[in-house]
Amino acid sequence: MYRYELSPRYAETDAMGHINNTVAPVWLEKARDPIFELFMPGRDLSKANLITVKYTIEFHDEIRYEHDVAIFTAIAEIGNASFTVTQRIMQNDSLRATGRTTLVHFDYRNKKAAPIPEDIRARLQEMAEA
Amino acid sequence: MYRYELSPRYAETDAMGHINNTVAPVWLEKARDPIFELFMPGRDLSKANLITVKYTIEFHDEIRYEHDVAIFTAIAEIGNASFTVTQRIMQNDSLRATGRTTLVHFDYRNKKAAPIPEDIRARLQEMAEA
Amino acid sequence: MYRYELSPRYAETDAMGHINNTVAPVWLEKARDPIFELFMPGRDLSKANLITVKYTIEFHDEIRYEHDVAIFTAIAEIGNASFTVTQRIMQNDSLRATGRTTLVHFDYRNKKAAPIPEDIRARLQEMAEA
Amino acid sequence: MYRYELSPRYAETDAMGHINNTVAPVWLEKARDPIFELFMPGRDLSKANLITVKYTIEFHDEIRYEHDVAIFTAIAEIGNASFTVTQRIMQNDSLRATGRTTLVHFDYRNKKAAPIPEDIRARLQEMAEA
What we know:
The radius of gyration of chain A is 16 Å and the shape is elongated. By secondary structure, chain A is α+β, with helices and mostly antiparallel strands. Helices cover 21% and strands 39% of the residues of chain A. The model of chain A has no long low-confidence stretch (mean pLDDT 96). Chain A has three helices and six strands; from the N terminus they run E-H-H-E-E-E-E-E-H. Chain A starts with a strand and ends with a helix. The A-B interface holds A 15-16, 21-22, 25-26, 29, 45, 48, 51-59 and B 15-16, 21-22, 25-26, 29, 45, 48, 51-59.
């Protein structure tokens, strides 16, 4: 599990005065950067090989603009070509939202899912256990 | 069930060349406008009383920039204070993504969930059967 | 001059209850699609060859969520490799914002600005005069 | 002048592989948080009293996803009710974009521009000279 911190943006609020619900997947994707780094070292987009196939986000409480947010990311399951990430969005030490995202390792040349390479699998396993 | 059409925006693409996965909840929220209209006539934000508590989005295929998108929205379940909406994002007659969103009717004055008013419930029921 | 219409999205509002100022460039870019179409027929992104080098946006009045918006786009100046577009965002027949954007025709292979091809220039000229 | 650092988000890239031009105003607004803090202590949105009336953004070079960005913000001019902020977006020590934004101190109760209070003016002045 690792932690990512961010400060909400004014443009991310909505007319209710809180962070709009559609912002959560943007934050959660950003918090997955260390995973992108595993699959594309240097976050080199020309080597991009991950596809987001599904996510579920649950909102437990309002997320406010004026306080920082901490996002905790963990690896929940590792399959042959896919894996699942669970994430929590915390603000002022209280749980605001949880996310569960499934990503697939993709071979863009052959346009199909591809097994997760062994070295990356080992690193994901370490993340899962940490 | 009703249909909403939109033309993707260039700013919604990402480095993979397709519409980024985080755009889907924005489109799906927009496509729920007729439901907002039921709960806040004239979409008058001072009367806003719906909270998004959960959504799941599954991606079946790439969504591209250059073709229009049609979103089909249906009411799946109606509870006491909450209801669930299912949505499909289609492009060129093929299914690109599906969404399932749960919303709660909220009493902002008393800060708690509130039963869906009978007249709105009847309209949701009509949408569910249509 | 041509017209593009859109319906604002709830996610585009901010805590003030209006459309956030950062949304305007997204709308203006979208309203320039017919110009993209000139430079990349079929809006085929693999042929993308326009760079936004500058824009100025002035806000004259609040843009609200609940009413449709009409954007009027005109070509103001055509140079050798660049051209300037002026745009107006209208709501309920009143002017809400104006934009002025300069774009450069770019040769991505040689990584430098390139003269606007004659056939495209003729079409821009037509737009400028319309 | 002060400095704000951020790490670009994958969702902010576009099909060209770089950060989309419409992202710049979002970043620049975020980098103005210390100014919001002056006008609404604690960034308490119920006290919001600033309106963005104009901005110009110039792009000098591509902004890339994989490297951090530093934004430098300075106060350029202070008028009676309005002031102008100049900002630079740097990446890898090279200038990528510059922004110039005019904001107006607004009295929401009376719906008109209002003189900048003296204590805030003094703080802006300090920022202008720093």
